[in-house]
């Protein structure tokens, strides 16, 4: 059983929860949008280095969340909090070795608190991966060492004992009302009462759950990767009971579904197949398809859709952003950044779509016109997820600049009005493709296995192991330390 141990602590009595970006992609609906934030261009206000940790020092930080005046990120063996104004460490809480997935800010017993998952089960990664090793299924003989845990931001103490999970969680935590929701590798969704840590319900959805869970209007929405007999799907559950309301499977054969986002009366997800990838607008009330549009090539699914007031935006692996009318699906604009965004998550801040890339760039596209208005020069250190505040945009970095940094508006930077290039920058794109080749191959092999099992091996002579489980964690950083 895990325990919470404080490495260092500074009281955070001023921190207030319930504000913007209290969990991955902002809040339980996972829109990835914030009404307020600094306008482009940007300069670095502060940068705090946090070295990769875990086995072989290969694992970095989760997407950041905000708890009042503190930015919180989860590493493989710690939950760290930094002061938003200065970047100074506010606290560091030890956790059992586990995937670096986002926490959620909540309120427990009237005090602000952080809820997070921990534990890597019976088969944690080795310091030096063995390519010859055959993965063993976790939890075959009983519960694995994985938990949902929490700590009070004012006292530093856990409000309840860690909640045992029967599998490893890679979804991060979603808090809606007085419940926290997590998904497990084995396809189970668990709902926990945040007041006392008791399990309210568990529902087995058959498949694999490895991306964030969304919640809105009394429903919980889950992207489920398929198995040998089923397509990937989006499933809606009753928030109070866990009863399945509907299950949506794509009309075309697909291998992978992205994390879901909710806006108005729609649930949005990207389904990636053998020939193309498409964004689908699903009715949140009945699970029926409202519209579908192509957004990329085969197996091209990266970040979840970003939902604004009247548009929904996708960004593919090669940095091609597309905006669609939220009601009709009509494409309003597209912009080709010609930069890889694999494992980099865009955000809509005010009227700007901010797109971080794996070579360290940050680009701002006007969401009304589709024109590029600002772009910095990448330094080769991947920029991952963002968390906008009123005065700054908080970014998680990997590679040589591993850690967290705050970007503020730079009044001396001149903005531009640049239309999307009509041709690909072939040299740059070939380099980008080389950078993303290995993780993309892992995505296809591990998350695409369910479709392969139905249609035959992806590669001649390759056996398919019935006990294989996904090995790629879409939330983790696995960049070697500089």
Features:
482 residues, mainly beta, Methylamine Dehydrogenase, Chain H, 5-stranded antiparallel sheet, 5-stranded mixed sheet, 2 helices, 38% strand, globular, disordered C terminus
Secondary-structure map with pairings?
Elements: E1 5-9, E2 33-34, E3 42-49, E4 65-67, E5 70-74, E6 78-83, E7 89-94, E8 104-108, E9 111-118, E10 146-152, E11 163-165, E12 174-176, E13 179-183, E14 188-193, E15 199-204, E16 214-216, E17 219-224, E18 233-238, E19 244-248, E20 254-257, E21 261-263, E22 266-273, E23 276-283, E24 289-297, E25 306-307, E26 311-315, E27 320-325, E28 331-336, E29 347-349, E30 352-356, E31 362-366, E32 372-375, E33 383-388, E34 393-397, E35 403-409, H1 426-447, H2 449-455
Parallel strand pairs: 2-29
Antiparallel strand pairs: 1-7, 3-35, 4-5, 5-6, 6-7, 8-9, 9-10, 10-11, 12-13, 13-14, 14-15, 16-17, 17-18, 18-19, 20-22, 21-22, 22-23, 23-24, 25-26, 26-27, 27-28, 29-30, 30-31, 31-32, 33-34, 34-35
Description:
The chain has 482 residues and is mainly beta. The chain has a single domain, classed as YVTN repeat-like/Quinoprotein amine dehydrogenase (Methylamine Dehydrogenase, Chain H, 7 Propeller), CATH 2.130.10. It contains two helices and 35 strands. The chain has helices spanning 426-447, 449-455, and strands spanning 5-9, 33-34, 42-49, 65-67, 70-74, 78-83, 89-94, 104-108, 111-118, 146-152, 163-165, 174-176, 179-183, 188-193, 199-204, 214-216, 219-224, 233-238, 244-248, 254-257, 261-263, 266-273, 276-283, 289-297, 306-307, 311-315, 320-325, 331-336, 347-349, 352-356, 362-366, 372-375, 383-388, 393-397, 403-409. It has a five-stranded antiparallel sheet, with no helix packed on it. It has a five-stranded mixed sheet with strand order 2-29-30-31-32, with no helix packed on it. The longest helix is centred in the C-terminal third of the chain and has 22 residues, at 426-447. The two termini are 34 Å apart.
């Amino acid at each position: 059983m895990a325990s919470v141990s404080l490495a260092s602590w500074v009281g955070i009595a001023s921190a207030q929860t319930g504000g913007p970006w209290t969990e991955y992609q902002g809040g339980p609906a996972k829109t990835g949008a914030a009404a307020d934030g600094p306008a482009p261009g940007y300069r670095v206000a502060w940068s705090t280095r946090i070295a990769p940790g875990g086995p072989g020092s290969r694992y970095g930080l989760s997407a950041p969340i905000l708890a009042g005046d503190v930015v919180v990120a989860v590493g493989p063996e710690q939950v760290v909090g930094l002061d938003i104004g200065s970047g100074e460490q506010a606290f560091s809480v030890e956790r059992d070795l586990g995937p670096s997935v986002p926490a959620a800010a909540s309120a427990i017993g009237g005090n602000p608190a952080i809820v997070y998952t921990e534990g890597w089960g019976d088969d944690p990664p080795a310091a030096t991966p063995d390519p010859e090793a055959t993965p063993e299924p976790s939890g075959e003989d009983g519960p694995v060492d994985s938990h949902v845990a929490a700590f009070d931001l004012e006292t530093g103490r856990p409000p309840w004992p860690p909640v045992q999970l029967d599998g490893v969680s890679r979804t991060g935590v979603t808090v809606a009302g007085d419940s926290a929701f997590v998904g497990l590798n084995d396809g189970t969704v668990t709902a926990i009462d945040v007041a006392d840590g008791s399990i309210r319900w568990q529902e087995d959805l058959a498949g694999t759950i490895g991306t964030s869970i969304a919640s809105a209007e009394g429903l919980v929405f889950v992207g489920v990767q398929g198995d040998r007999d089923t397509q990937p799907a989006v499933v809606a559950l009753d928030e109070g009971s866990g009863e399945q309301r509907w299950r949506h499977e794509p009309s075309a054969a697909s291998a992978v579904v992205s994390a879901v986002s909710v806006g108005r009366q729609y649930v949005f997800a990207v389904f990636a197949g053998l020939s193309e990838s498409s964004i689908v607008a699903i009715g949140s009330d009945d699970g029926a398809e409202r519209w579908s549009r192509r957004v990329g090539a085969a197996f091209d699914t990266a970040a979840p859709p970003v939902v604004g007031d009247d548009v929904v935006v996708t960004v593919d692996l090669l940095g091609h952003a597309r905006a669609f009318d939220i009601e009709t699906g009509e494409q309003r604009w597209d912009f080709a950044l010609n930069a890889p965004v694999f494992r980099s998550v865009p955000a809509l801040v005010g009227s700007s779509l901010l797109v971080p890339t794996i070579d360290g760039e940050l680009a701002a596209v006007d969401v009304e016109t589709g024109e590029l208005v600002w772009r910095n020069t990448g330094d080769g250190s991947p920029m991952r997820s963002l968390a906008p505040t009123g005065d700054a945009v908080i970014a998680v970095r990997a590679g040589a600049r591993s850690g967290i940094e705050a970007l503020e508006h730079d009044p001396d930077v001149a903005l531009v009005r640049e239309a999307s290039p009509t041709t690909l920058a072939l040299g740059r794109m070939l380099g980008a493709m080389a950078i993303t080749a290995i993780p993309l191959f892992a995505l296809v092999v591990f998350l695409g296995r369910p479709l392969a099992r139905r249609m035959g091996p992806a590669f001649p002579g390759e056996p398919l192991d019935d006990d294989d489980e996904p090995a790629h964690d879409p939330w983790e950083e696995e960049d070697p330390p500089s």
